[in-house]
Amino acid sequence: MSDVKSRRTYDMSRRRAAAARRRRRVLDTAADLFLAGGYAATTVAAVAEGAGVSVETIYKSFGGKTGLVRALIEDGLEGTEPEPAEQRSDRAAAAVSGDPRAIISAWTTIGLDVVRRVAPLMIMARAAAVTDPDLSRLLEEVRERALRRMAHNAEALAPHLREGVTVELARDVLVAYLTPELYDTLVHEFGWSPAQWADFQARGIAAQLL
Fold first, then answer.
1. Which residues are CB-contacts of 38 (< 8 A; sequence separation ≥ 6)?
2. Mean pLDDT of 108-127
3. Mean pLDDT score, 67-86
4. In this structure, are 51 and 114 located in the same domain?
């Protein structure tokens, strides 16, 4: 009986691993096509062909093109480390709670991990959302999530905020510094290095808030 359970567990693990690889392949293909040709020009059929899966698989797993963009943005917001970015952010704030500049520096490092993946997708989606109500609603959800997250981060800085700087203002500053357009302008248009962007973030946020 134990051998049967072991084989069953092994088979389930293999299926989960195969599903994870397939999902990764679909998302990587979708990202490449969206960023190369734009949202409107990219079809579910093209993503399916490129990823080696059926169209039905994509609709079942993601619900269509908007679902693919949602999954890509959510994946990007997690960052590239095993621990999700938001958890890393909270852990960093707790570890150096008495040093606001160290907190901000840690956040900018985590933010870089996120924004370099999310910024191109967000810019692509915003351009397409002008004529696509589904994408527009998705971006509003992403915006609300960013506001909630930065409000949470602003609360962590509350004891260190300069007189006259409210938590609400701190939230707005944090959101503004992390906009995809700012990253795109500095890094892709002006040719700044990611390290320069992170230093600009850390110094600018500290100067505005502390």
1. 124, 127, 128
2. 95
3. 95
4. no
